[in-house]
Fold this protein.
Amino acid sequence: MIIEYKDMEKVEQTISDWLKGKFLKERILFGDMATLMLESFKPLEGHSESTSNYKLALLALSSRMFNDCEGAKQLLLWGLPDQSQPLIRDIIECIQLLRLFLKKPRYAERWLINLNEYQPSDVNAQLKKLHIEAREYAFYGSLSHGVHSNLLGSLSPLQEREAGDHGMLRIAHFGTARTPEAEFSIQENFIIMFFLMHVALVGPLAKFYYSHIDSETYDTWAKKMENLTPRLVDITSEMIKQEEDSSNSVDPILQDLVFKKMRFESLQKRLEKE
């Protein structure tokens, strides 16, 4: 068993060297999506005594959602995909609350003034009653498996290598993981986060921005948003192809655990439907 942790002063340089030529599309796409999100927040800029509690609630929630995205991105690029999942899951909760607050402003004021807390399952049920489709919630269950200290949420730092006559060499990466398994998990979590950012943009953020900006400015923003879709499709297709091409380089034991997780989730969904 090897425990691998580089000298602290070398960690940042090691990761910087590792990232050269990696995840370029992900970093560029994230920047473009983040820019559109920030633009949609512009009507919330500034503060005065006349600012409503409703807008203050939206501002607080929007900043949290954006910082979740930024924090998850930093953890992913640092080689800590498991640690990014709690933040990615929180993005879902923020999107759902934004949907609810835009439809029912009184919930936003209670959240701000009375410190009311709304459980994700309750919010989802409320959105269904309001006939609001919350596509983001489909990822909540699977992400919940990974945010707790169980095996499925602790796989990315582990690696096994052939060690000749000595059998398999197990390596535990502390501080960061830069293995084929970790790269796969990083790409997978980026795609989930991109989907959630896109859902936020075309859903609650578009609704809010449209009602607080002139039509010409909104149309320009919406056109940029439309251009994101083919790029999302492209980056997802590329990951699937890379997965097929590099399947032999991925640790078969960890890969089998991932497949078991997928089968478990599939079974769980069927049971829920029944």
